[in-house]
Amino acid sequence: MSTREMIEKEVASLPETLQREVYDFARFLRLKDADEHFNGLLLSESALAKDWDTPEEDTAWASL
Q1: Residue 22 burial (CB count, 10 A)
Q2: Cα torsion through 63, 54, 51, 43, rounded to 10
Q3: What is the 3-state secondary structure (H, E, C) of 2-60?
Q4: 3-class DSSP state of 63
Q5: How far apart are CA 59 and CA 56, in angstroms?
Q6: Which residue has the higher pLDDT, 35 or 63?
Q7: Are the C-beta atoms of 20 and 26 separated by less than 8 Å?
Q8: Structure confidence by residue, pLDDT tens digits, 18-40
Q9: How far apart are CA 33 and CA 36, in angstroms?
Q10: Looking at residue 37, what is its pLDDT?
């Protein structure tokens, strides 16, 4: 029996209120996993590029 089948069997035997809690927990796990893979730096890169990509910045960092 697959993990999915075991989960479905177990959840099916629960009362509706507990099934809802399992659903909420499963969503929490999915969102938590997505957050761990999220890199906010990539989103800020385009916003900060207009400040970074200037001749003044190139001059300031040229010696490094």
Answers
A1: 13
A2: -90
A3: CHHHHHHHHHHCCCHHHHHHHHHHHHHHHHHHHHHHCCHHHHHHHHHHHHHCCHHHHHH
A4: coil
A5: 5
A6: 63
A7: no
A8: 999 999 999 999 888 877 666 66
A9: 5
A10: 67
> Which pLDDT band holds residue 16 (cuts at 50, 70, 90)?
very high
Residue 5 phi, psi (nearest 5): -65, -40
Token pair for residue 30? 């999915």
Q: Which residue shows structure tokens 């001059």?
A: 59
Reading the block at residue 48, the tokens are 């900060």
d(CA 62, CA 44): 23
One-letter identity of residue 39: N
Q: Are 11 and 22 spatial neighbours (Cβ–Cβ below 8 Å)? A: yes
pTM above 0.85, yes or no: no
* Per-residue model confidence (pLDDT) at position 7: 96
